[in-house]
Amino acid sequence: MQDSFGRVIDYLRISITDRCNFRCSYCMPPEGVPLLEHSEILSYEELLRVIRILGQYGVNKIRITGGEPLIRKGIVDFIRAVREIETVADLAMTTNGSLLANRAYQLKKAGLDRVNISIDTLNPKEFSRITGGGQLSDVVQGIKSAMNAGLAPIKLNVVVTEVFSMEDLSYFIKQTYEFPIAVRFIEYMPVGRCGVKAGSSIKAIKNSINTAGYGMLEKAFSIKGNGPAYYYRLPRAMGVFGFITPMTEHFCHTCNRIRLTADGKIKPCLLANQEFDIKHALRSGTSDSKVAELFVKALQGKPLHHIWGNDREGTNLLRNMSQVGG
């Protein structure tokens, strides 16, 4: 599939639930969000149909997101069913990791290739505050289980908000010396109305790493994945650092993705309100070719680039990140 600017779209991000067991401050407003009724969420059968249809048009990379995807019942069987679709070349998941310890081996056996794990601090008290009561130890155990299960490469997603500290940075630096992981620092994006402010710039974080006494960052080869991160490595480190700059140095010109929300809306761009309903078509006997046409139409609405500036002010995005899946 191609959009109106000639970008090849081969990557589908599917939010399978709007529910989450965390309440991360940048992902969900303090008052929470109205939860969808189960009947409003696309069934696994409907999602599998979409994956099969889009696979015939070159969409062969699938990422499962939420909310927290491991909350939804039947997730292991769903992963197995996705893996059985011949056109799927890459199958990944983004998770908060808190429920991963007891699922990692099952998910790998079912056909999941790898996981991205959201973890914004390694300070237990701060972690609990950011996540609204989450236990850091659960996530750490989930990361270890994912490593042991072979869900590699494991990427840790660190959203840099105003509470990110140099102590956090020091902790994450140490992890790359101990484990073959990718720690990815991500600029905060103003999705929804969470009232969170951005933290240190990615440039400042890179400078801090270079002056921390570990040596200078060296460019590293890109690791397996479909994201926009650029990677660096410290001398003698097992792992790497990734930097993702959607606000200050956006990568819209190379965007290869389209999103499907849990309630059946196609989102051509994360940082835009435009959505196209697919649920009605899936539930009203619409042919596969007509369903594909809806995605083609949605892609024609994919903008050349998002509209937000470096100041991240003035956002009027209607959905919060928990309702989109990143």
TrEMBL record:
Binds 2 [4Fe-4S] clusters. Binds 1 [4Fe-4S] cluster coordinated with 3 cysteines and an exchangeable S-adenosyl-L-methionine and 1 [4Fe-4S] cluster coordinated with 3 cysteines and the GTP-derived substrate. CDD domains: Radical_SAM (cd01335), Twitch_MoaA (cd21117). It catalyses: GTP + AH2 + S-adenosyl-L-methionine = (8S)-3',8-cyclo-7,8-dihydroguanosine 5'-triphosphate + 5'-deoxyadenosine + L-methionine + A + H(+). Its EC number is 4.1.99.22. One of its GO terms (molecular function) is S-adenosyl-L-methionine binding. Pathway: Cofactor biosynthesis; molybdopterin biosynthesis. Its cofactor is [4Fe-4S] cluster. SMART domains: Elp3 (SM00729). GTP binds at R13, R63, T94, K155, R257, I258, R259. [4Fe-4S] cluster 2 binds at C252, C255, C269. InterPro entries: Aldolase_TIM, Elp3/MiaA/NifB-like_rSAM, MoaA, MoaA-like, MoaA_NifB_PqqE_Fe-S-bd_CS, MoaA_twitch, MoCo_biosynth_MoaA/MoaC, rSAM. Gene3D superfamilies: Aldolase class I. Keywords: 4Fe-4S, GTP-binding, Iron, Iron-sulfur, Lyase, Metal-binding, Molybdenum cofactor biosynthesis, Nucleotide-binding, S-adenosyl-L-methionine. One of its GO terms (biological process) is Mo-molybdopterin cofactor biosynthetic process. Residues 4-228 form the Radical SAM core domain. S-adenosyl-L-methionine binds at Y26, G67, S118, M189. [4Fe-4S] cluster 1 binds at C20, C24, C27. Monomer and homodimer. Belongs to the radical SAM superfamily. MoaA family. Catalyzes the cyclization of GTP to (8S)-3',8-cyclo-7,8-dihydroguanosine 5'-triphosphate. NCBIfam families: moaA (TIGR02666), PRK00164.2-1 (NF001199). This is GTP 3',8-cyclase. It comes from Pelosinus fermentans B4. The gene is moaA.
